[in-house]
Every structure is written in C-alpha cells, then in structure tokens.
Amino acid sequence: MPEALLEVNHLKKYFPIQKGLLNRTVGHVKAVDGISLSIQKGETFGLVGESGSGKSTVGKTIIRLTEKTEGEVKFKGVDLYGLSPQELRKIRPSMQLIFQDPYSSLNPRVRVGDAIGEALLDHGLAPKEEIRNLVLEVLKSCGLSSYHFDRFPHEFSGGQRQRIGIARALILNPDLIIADEPVSALDVSIQAQIINLFRKLQDTRGLTYLFISHDLSVVEHLCSRIGVMYLGSMMETASRDELFKNPLHPYTKALLSAVPIPIPKLKRERIVLKGDIPNPADPPAGCKFHTRCPFAVGRCKEEVPVFRDAGGGHFVACHLA
Ligand code: SF4
User: Fold this and answer.
1) Which parts pass through the membrane (predicted)?
2) Dist CA 116 CA 163 (whole Å)
3) What confidence tens digit (pLDDT) does each residue in 86-112 have?
4) Alpha carbon 145 to chain centroid, angstroms
5) CA pair distance 73, 249, nearest whole angstrom
6) Distance (Å, rounded) from C-alpha 34 to C-alpha 12?
7) C-beta of residue 208 within 8 angstroms of C-beta of residue 40
8) Stated pTM of the model
9) Are 202 and 44 in contact (CB under 8 A)?
C-alpha cells in the first residue's frame, strides 16, 4: 500500500477549564479524544458529525493552528509535531485550511487580488513582479476573472467569497486542503457550484482533501471515504458507497436517516436522536453515544466499544454492530 499523504494516530486535543482567581485547571474539554485516520494522495476524506463533535478541532490540530495534547500527525511521512517553527513555516504552504466564512479573514480595505497574492509574498514563493499574473491565473481557475482582481471583499456574493477563499489556498500550490464547512453558509444551488469547483481542481491539480461537514449529503458528492465523529471520537469509517449502503453505527444511521433520497417513492425511516450532544468536558462513560442511542444495552454504559474492522476496511465502534 502506498504511503499515506496524511496520517493521524490517536490524536487528542484537550482544552483546560480554568476557574478562580488563580486560574486553576479544574477539568478538560476533550474536543478530540484519540482520533486516527489516514488519507491517500488524491483522495477526499469526509469528516462528519454534529456541531460540537470536535471535527473542526481535528482540522486545526492537524496543521498545528492549535497544538495537540497527544498523538501523532504525519504529513508526507514527516512528523509535523517534531518540526521546529522554521521547518513548520516551510512546510505550511503545502497544507492549507479553508474556512466556512472566508469574508471574516479578508481585510475589507485590501483589494482581493492583493489579498490572494499576499501569501506568496509572505512565504517568499514568487518575485513581486510575477505575483499579479499568478493571482490572475488562480482567479481564473476558481471561476473568477481579471475584473475581480481590483474589487474589495464587500463587492462579492457568498459563493464568490468562497471562490476567493479557495484561490487564496491554491496560490500556494498545496498538496492537502482541509476545508472546514466550506459550503455550509451557501444556498443549495451555490453549494453545488462550489463542490463542482473542488472536484474540478482535484482533477486538474491532483489535490487531496480533508472535507469537514455536519452534512452527510454534502460529503456524499465529493468524498471517497467518510469518517463519522461523535463527541471527540471516531464512531465509524468506511468508503462512501459502503457507508451509505451499509451503515453499522446507530449514530451514522441516525445522520443518514435525515439525508433526503432523490427517489420520492423510497423513504428512509427517520431516526430522531433525543437531546443534545453531551458536554465534552464530562462525556458519558462507556460508549459516549449511549445517552442518545435507541439501541443501548446495559453493557454500553460501562464498556467503551473497540474501534474494530468489521471487514473490507469498514471500521466501527459499537458493541452491537
Ligand atoms: Fe448504541 Fe451501545 Fe452501540 Fe454505543 S455501543 S452505539 S450505545 S448500541
């Protein structure tokens, strides 16, 4: 098997809870609690879960926007947490993060073309006189034009702003893009256009994506493999087709039951989960999902289910699966 572009092993990210005048640590929010995944070059891995499942923290911890508590992250075989700040800065252009709201990261007074070119200058990746042409090229590949170079961020629609966000990542010629809810704030028709753009860029540039979303219907169209997270832990991973045809974890089944089917005669039985996702500072014992699982048995409250191979690369953490 070829070496994975990205390999994450037992990654943990705990945020301390501090209280009192002396800011004493009284507990931890276990945002990411032992996640493992690997992504091959050219693959799109979808990471799915409700808000509060820790999926965004996984993305940020992978590229060291926030530091890990434990675990290992290897990119092209290099241990990212073993790098010095200088070495990390050198490798950074190869791993780019795209946010849900690119507008918030754009300076309203800086023309879009300059904002996209800024990163090239910062990293010393191109001489100043070449930057305009490089930006025009990347704008074109993202469905924008030279007209947009001198416009300001407020002059763009939501979909165009996300194209700018993608262009800002692409200009650095990355190998891996971590896209965190990149289409969640967009209308459905615009979502489709942006997903098509992601796909086209993958075909033309051989990109690898970690695509983070709360919406299984969005990842279905783009991802070859999917991981389902709940309360900081991975509940199930499988190829997209296998996960949609044969979901094994009750949480995945519940998420899938909310995904509309294009054939009106076929209806999935809707599984409505009771209550909200528990507090990650005080997760339930045993299976973390037992407080909301319609199939929970006594053992689920005490014993943590092992994340095991159910066959053919389909992994699941459930006593009953
Ligand atoms: Fe539900 Fe038990 Fe499986 Fe957890 S281990 S998902 S509580 S059946």
Assistant:
1) none
2) 11
3) 999 999 999 999 988 877 878 899 999
4) 28
5) 26
6) 5
7) yes
8) 0.92
9) yes
Per-residue pLDDT tens digits for 73-85: 999 999 999 999 9
Note the helical H segments in 16-80. 55-62
What distance in Å separates the CA atoms of residue 39 and residue 60, rounded to the nearest whole number?
Answer: 16
> Considering the domain 6-316 in this protein, what is its CATH number?
3.40.50.300
Tokens standing for 257? 């039951």
User: 135-180, pLDDT tens digit by residue?
Assistant: 999 999 999 999 999 999 999 999 999 999 999 999 999 999 999 9
Q: Give 20: exposed, middle or buried? Use CB within 10 Å, 0-12, 13-18, 19+.
A: exposed
Handedness of CA 211, 216, 218, 221 (dihedral sign): positive
Which residue's alpha carbon is nearest to atom 7 within ligand 1?
Answer: 290
* Cβ contact 47:104 at 8 Å: no
Residue of minimum CA distance from atom 6 in ligand 1 = 318
| Distance from Cα 230 to the centre of ligand 1, integer Å | 12
Which tokens is 289 given? 């999902």
